Amino acid sequence: MTRASYVHGYSASEATRLSDQADTLAELLHHDTRYAAGSRVLEAGSGVGAQTVHLLAGSPHACFTC
């Protein structure tokens, strides 16, 4: 089985830009975002997952569907 690329076709440079943007804004956007252990979170429109990384860091025992 091969790994599929992102369906909307973001290039590697665009994925890097989005990740850099998410890293820059993480403290402002997610400083108080926490989900309880066992929470199930639907992150609609997660794109390349740049924000998801920060949500997971703050709520490591929540289950995310992106």
Characteristic key phrases:
mainly alpha, flat, two-stranded parallel sheet, 66 residues, single chain, 2 helices
Explain the overall architecture:
It is a single chain. With 66 residues, this protein is mostly helical. It is built from 2 helices and 2 strands. It has helices at 12-30, 50-58; strands at 40-42, 63-65. The protein has a two-stranded parallel ribbon with strand order 1-2. Strand 1 (40-42), helix 2 and strand 2 (63-65) form a beta-alpha-beta unit. Helix 1 (12-30) runs parallel beside helix 2 (50-58). It is flat and about 35 Å long.
The best one-word shape is flat
Task: Give the low-pLDDT segments.
Answer: none
Q: What percentage of residues falls in helices of 4 or more residues? A: 40-55%
Distance between the termini: 21 Å
Secondary-structure element order, as H and E? HEHE
The helix count comes to: 2
Strand order, biggest sheet? 1-2
Q: Which class of secondary structure composition applies to the elements?
A: mainly alpha
Brief rundown of the structure:
By secondary structure, this protein is mostly helical. 42% of the residues lie in helices and 9% in strands.
